[in-house]
Amino acid sequence: MKVLVTGGAGFIGSAVVRHIIRDTDWTVANVDKLTYAGNLESLAEARHHPRHQHFKVDICNRAALAEIFASFRPDAVLHLAAESHVDRSIDGASPFIKTNLVGTYELLEAALAYWRALDEPARGRFRFQHISTDEVFGSLGPTGKFTEESRYEPNSPYAASKAGADHLVRAWHHTWGLPTLATNCSNNYGPYHFPEKLIPLAIIRALRGESLPVYGKGENVRDWLHVEDHAEALTLVLQKGEPGQTYNVGGDNERRNIDVVRAICAHLDELLPNTVNQPHAKLIEFVTDRPGHDQRYAIDAGKIARELGWRPKYRFEDGLRATVRWYLYNRSWWERVMSGAYRGERLGLQS
């Protein structure tokens, strides 16, 4: 199979590319314009593999996309390119509207034109898979989980832009018959995670002996999914999913934010004994909550389990410990990342 992956130098995208190159015989065209969060080093051994090729192209550039479709001739598209940080969307929504909405539209149009020109057997095999988030569903109360039938109630500019992209993908399937698939995932964690998100930021700030800011009282709940579990789920949906269907992908690992940060501190206490920052939990600092902070997310991943046989392999405790160890032993990667425009500052304070 020849797969066009958008956003393949980002956190989830790079995990997908690494998985494809390591565990399949597929060929990848990696379309990533390399924003602040895109890093070819995150591809590791897949970066220079003969079955991987990177195209530094913005998905808003339909002419460039058409050229890639024409030259690479993909059998499928895995669309992961997105602006993805809620706090940044609060500070400035424009890039989220352009990439997540306009970019998805341009990619859909390029894919539709390519698909229409294929012969009948190739049209039957082609798939366009869109990767989205549970944040499109809004916030849950203390009980219940998001299902594929949950009502869309996005509460941040980021979530709204992803919700709009979801609707575009659905429309291109129902209006023109483009064979689309969609997935909505819970919070990802794991290696090569850009250090603006909770887990990598807490690890790195703790290693530096800096304060660990936690929004509000830290009682917001997220369902955590290891990025390598997610990568396997996405390729399984691509192979076995039914066109027009949506599949929720979750880790079944609900945790309060404060408990995640405390667990990180406990792992660092164990892995770095006799350091001046012991216990690392003393670095925790509660700060003013961000505007519109959703209280709880939880994914019901029963459909993908029943229909496709996928279940997460990582227990959160094991995956988090492995992630902390990865950041300990890959300091050069995140130090190079942190030396750029992003240096761990707090974002999303505007209201």
Describe the structure in your own words:
With 351 residues, this protein is an alpha/beta fold. The chain has a domain at 2-190 and 224-253 and 296-315: 3-Layer(aba) Sandwich (Rossmann fold), CATH 3.40.50. The protein has twelve helices and twelve strands. The strands form three sheets. Strands 3-2-1-4-5-6-10 form a seven-stranded parallel sheet, sandwiched between helices. A three-stranded mixed sheet has the order 7-9-11. A two-stranded parallel ribbon has the order 8-12. α7 (198-207) packs parallel to α9 (257-271). The longest helix is centred in the first third of the chain and has 23 residues, at 94-116.
Proportion of strand residues:
15-25%
Mean pLDDT across residues: 94
Order of helices and strands: EHEEHEHHHEHEEHEEHEEHEHHH
What is the CATH topology assignment of the domain at 2-190 and 224-253 and 296-315?
Answer: Rossmann fold
Helix content: 40-55%
Q: From the alpha-carbon coordinates, what is the Rg to the nearest angstrom?
A: 20 Å
Q: What characteristic shape results from the CA principal axes? A: globular
Overall CATH architecture of the domain at 2-190 and 224-253 and 296-315: 3-Layer(aba) Sandwich
**The top level CATH class name of the domain at 2-190 and 224-253 and 296-315:** Alpha Beta
Give a quick account of the main beta sheet: strands, pairing sense, barrel closure: 7 strands, parallel
Number of helices: 12
Please name the fourth-level CATH homologous superfamily of the domain at 2-190 and 224-253 and 296-315. NAD(P)-binding Rossmann-like Domain
Overall number of strands = 12
End-to-end gap: 46 Å
Low-confidence stretches: none
Q: Within the largest sheet, what's the order of strands?
A: 3-2-1-4-5-6-10
Which structural class fits the helix and strand makeup?
Answer: alpha/beta
